[in-house]
Amino acid sequence: MIEREPTPRHKVCGEFLSGEALEDLDALGIDIAALGAVPIPYVRLAAARRAAEAPLPFPAASLTRKTLDTALIAEAIAAGVRIECGRSVQVLSRTATGMWQAMLDDGSICEAPTAFLATGKHDLRGHSRPKDPQRWVAFKMYYRLAPAQASELARASELMLYPGGYGGIQPVEGGIANLCWVVQQRYLSCLGNRWENFLEKMQQNCPHLAMRLAGAEPLLDKPIAVTHIPYGYIRRTTQDGLYCIGDQAAVIPSFTGDGISIALHTARCAVAAFLANEPAPLFQARLRSALLPQMRLAEFAADGLNNALARAVLPFCLRIWPGVMRVTARLTRVAAQHADVAPNAVVS
Ligand SMILES: Cc1cc2nc3c(=O)[nH]c(=O)nc-3n(C[C@H](O)[C@H](O)[C@H](O)COP(=O)(O)OP(=O)(O)OC[C@H]3O[C@@H](n4cnc5c(N)ncnc54)[C@H](O)[C@@H]3O)c2cc1C
């Protein structure tokens, strides 16, 4: 495995672990409770001046990516994986003899008959995903909330809606909170492309967030950010011997909190396909069909969240009918639906 970061670091991510992710991590032998994960039994939706709460219909937790990625790498090493950290792949190409050849930043070459493409949000030249027309920008910031706000947030994941995007705040280990938000570039441009201006605007549009952040201490110098997230993308095909997984296979809208579970499941399914000698193009096509229905539903729901009328009525509806939130949460879970994507061969 070639990983460009020398050590795990903060990633832009809401750090919500859905029920499927918890199952996969458990199967890998990773004890997230021992790592300090916070159980998240509730979801709250806040828009304009309203907020509504519903219990989540599945177990969930939160854990910083730095802690999770550290544990995953340690587990891989313990399982015998050779990891080259701090080295990046510059080019991944196929040779005339059908081998996959990765050229690293120091010019050295790694060659293998099979490769797994797992570069997440970052595209490799020659394997790029299409451009994201809405030009989403995402930010993450850690805060130490004022004690009263930390106890009100308690063990909930709060989703906040505002024009141009949505954001979420939830507790993570160490008694701190993660605020992660997405916005379309054109809304950011209107505010001079400054995250501070947009954060202020978010709080004006969503007083619930202003309340949460009152007296909060920011824990990073500035938020970390990523741009151009191709939400809704599902890879159509691939070349022989190249299995694409995680965000390189599919990018589900962030509000579902399902990206990590898709990464874990697609990795597991790709390994099963590889061990069963299923050609990568067949695997990728099958994965696409399995992911498509839930992905489209998640996209439809994401469009709804960005709709002014929906923002006005959603929290009110949820007060009368919290079941809507439970149903949406259940229907946008992708991983459970494609758990059977591995071919029929026995994998031990
Ligand atoms: C705003 C936002 C909020 C989100 N919130 C959640 C959430 O709450 N819950 C959830 O489940 N999902 C969430 N997601 C989605 C989730 O972060 C991703 O789906 C998940 O991280 C994908 O995993 P991955 O392994 O494909 O990629 P990543 O986790 O991005 O890992 C890719 C790795 O590849 C390495 N790499 C990249 N390029 C190279 C290269 N050229 N050479 C070597 N190494 C390279 C990187 O350093 C990185 O470590 C969110 C996403 C966004 C944008």
From TrEMBL:
InterPro entries: FAD/NAD-bd_sf, Geranylgeranyl_reductase. It comes from the Bacteria. PANTHER family: CONDITIONED MEDIUM FACTOR RECEPTOR 1, GERANYLGERANYL DIPHOSPHATE REDUCTASE. This is Flavin-dependent dehydrogenase. It comes from Edaphobacter dinghuensis.
